[in-house]
Amino acid sequence: MINTLSLKEAQKAILLSQGIYSEHKLGNGKEATYKAIKAINYVQIDSISVVARAHHHSIWNRAENYDPMHIEQLLADKQIFEYWSHAASYLPMVDYRYSLPRKNGFAQGVEHWFKKDKKSMSFVLERIKDEGPLQAKDFKDSRKTKTGWWDWKPAKKALEQLFMEGELMVAKRQGFQKVYDLTERVLPANTDTRIPSEEEYFQHLIINYLNANAIGTPQQMTYLLKGLKTSVKARCLQMVEEGLLITVIVDKQSYFALPTVNELLKKKLSLNKVKILSPFDNLLIQRKRTKELFNYDYQIECYVPANKRKVGYFSLPLLWGRTFVGRMDVKMDRKLSILNILNLHIEIEKVDEFIIELKKALDKFLLFNNGTSINVVKITSNNQIFADRNVKNFTLILTA
């Protein structure tokens, strides 16, 4: 069965699946945090700390009264674990067995970032067996020269290789640095460690993706997973025949969806709130998909040379209802507790209405970042009508 969804219906289904406006429905405390992670499959970990780190920021947008300590508590309770999704991520422990195909691939010779150094791997593994959990800093670097930031010492490479192969897990983080331990000492005793069949693995990827994203293509379902697109596409087509999936057309593009997508569309979606998102939020981490479905061409510019940046180093996407309406380059001054808006770039005409809703979102974002005041440095726009106006009034509203 082929269904047709309008672009607005597709956007609604995606936002409802992502839980971006449903924070009050998950309850409170660490259980709400767990539910948020489970609902979107994983949350990306990132080291940039211009404002609250990406994993905290993404969960905060979905779990009411989120506290960063919830992550540490869930790790200690072994309800989540750290591994690789499309990037370093926290994942629900109930999905542990589905990390095994990738781990086995690395163990059997698939190359990660660097070649195996079996001698170093054996050395660090024996030390952890004997001494307990260790960090990379617990191993000396005897090299005399380095060639760059990614030129890790042999022990660090060995630790990461053993982690990717599944011999080691991250027991916790200290000062954002990984603390490695033997998998057998981290994994809960009742964890399902059966290696899934190919059919089970592909079906897990498909259903989990669609539960979190409403609609998707095999390419999107296997984002940054090498060599799986063809097999996942074949399984999608089989699942359509079995009645487990349907095909939907959005803006002349074909997607797969769960049969429940039409029921999902009957739910209400807030169209008034503004959400200040992390650049690494699950909703828009696939930039091509975001452009196709939301007409939002987003690029994080921290990896772009300073003289080529259009908005700023760490611009946060701004979502208003189901529309991306701009981006905001920010930097938290933690010593002075000031949230500096280095450039608020607005991409719509309804500026006055948007500023009122943005102010509400900013007040919450300020509290989340433990700030006490906001400083607006610059406001820009592609809109000539706005560009010709005096922006001082908006600055006063935002900083009041």
Write a concise synopsis of the structure shown.
The chain is an alpha+beta fold and 400 residues long. It is built from 16 helices and 15 strands.
Notable traits:
alpha+beta, 3 domains, Arc Repressor Mutant, subunit A, 15 strands, single chain, 400 residues, 4-stranded mixed β-sheet
Report on the architecture of this protein:
- The chain is of the alpha+beta class.
- It has 3 domains: about 20-185, no CATH class; about 200-265, Winged helix-like DNA-binding domain superfamily/Winged helix DNA-binding domain (Arc Repressor Mutant, subunit A, Orthogonal Bundle); about 300-400, no CATH class.
- The chain is built from 16 helices and 15 strands.
- It has helices at about 5-20, 30-40, 55-60, 70-75, 100-105, 120-130, 155-165, 185, 200-215, 220, 230-240, 260-265, 285-295, 350-370, 385, 390-400, and strands at about 1-5, 45, 80-85, 90, 170-175, 175-180, 215, 245-250, 255, 275, 315-320, 325-335, 340-345, 375, 380.
- Strands 10, 11, 12, 13, 14 and 15 form a 6-stranded mixed β-sheet that branches. A 4-stranded mixed β-sheet has the order 1-8-9-7. It has a 3-stranded antiparallel β-sheet with strand order 2-4-3.
- Strand 5 (about 170-175) and strand 6 form a beta hairpin.
- The protein is globular, with a radius of gyration of 23 Å.
